[in-house]
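Case study.
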Amino acid sequence: MARTYLVRGMLAGLFAGLCALGFAKLGAEPQIKRAERFELQLDLQLRRAAPRPLVSRQVQDTVGLGTGIAVAGVAVGGLYGLAFAGAYRRMGNSRAEVTAIVLAAAGFLGLFLVPFLKYPSNPPSVGNPDTIGHRTALYFLLVAVGLVSVSLAVMVKGRSVARLGTWNASLLAVATFVALVVLSYVVTPGVDEVPAGFPATLLWKFRMASIGTQAVLWGTLGVAFGALTERHESSRRRRPDGSSPPRAHDEVVEKVMVAPGATSSRALRSSSDG
Amino acid sequence: MAASVAVGGARAAREVDVPALPRPVSAGELLPWALFFGVLLLLLLYFVGAEQGAASLVGGHWVHEFVHDARHVLAFPCH
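After joint prediction, the assembly is written out as follows.
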């Protein structure tokens, strides 16, 4: 099953990457173009020669953007599939679709949102090239903090749910997560490298587009992976006559319809038929 | 693999078949896949996210510039 989940994750990740690419093209590319124009003006003002790009802007904002996001989608999807293989049927008794969407939400939160809130994405012309090593190290440090914080929160809930009940165990898990993340924000240094005169609205819109792109990526990944897994499982538990049994959440509807004394029209009709 | 559960509440308990969920993937099965493909996929992510930025495995700036826009949008530090 590990191989199935890995391949399924990479496929769902490719699909999610293409959806995220659509969002990035519409939401982020216009901001990147504005930022590139700002950089050009800055170069003119400072009378410095703009570096000649190795890859033309036309390639960067089409094939380059597409390849980058699609490859990231496949990689994230594969890792997600492996994580799903480890988590499914171990964390609680949730069915595949629920586990898939919860895991995707955890990934979005821990691997993207935690580092992003301290070190948000920047459009071109924001950021000092001399500090790239420092900033990259800090960014991946917070990715690790996000991963550890989410994992610890899940463990705390799992260990305390029998003693404290679901509600209090969840509160304790959230408190653990928030405490760890806030602590890491306090001890890591701030980065402030926005050039003077850079439009604040442009910065805001670009960062919103980053959040949107990642939300589309993780959201699509979770829903697509969950749907594929659910379909695979229900096809494996087909009845001998070839008909598929009702899915887990359809059972509730069926229960209401057949309960004696129920006043739904369906129940009344079936009782009058019988 | 079907589990029987009672539904319908106290007034009319009735048993229906609910399909059982699959068994968890064992650690012994998962570990080799997770190690080998985990490293491979992280390397793939590294090429999109960080190659020729802070660190460089293949020389030049070609990879950096090709995935430049994706790197910015996905919030990796770029330059």
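Observations recorded in class. Chain A touches chain B through 73 residues (CB under 8 Å). Residues 249-259, 261-274 of chain A have pLDDT under 50 and may be disordered. We will return to this complex in the next lecture.
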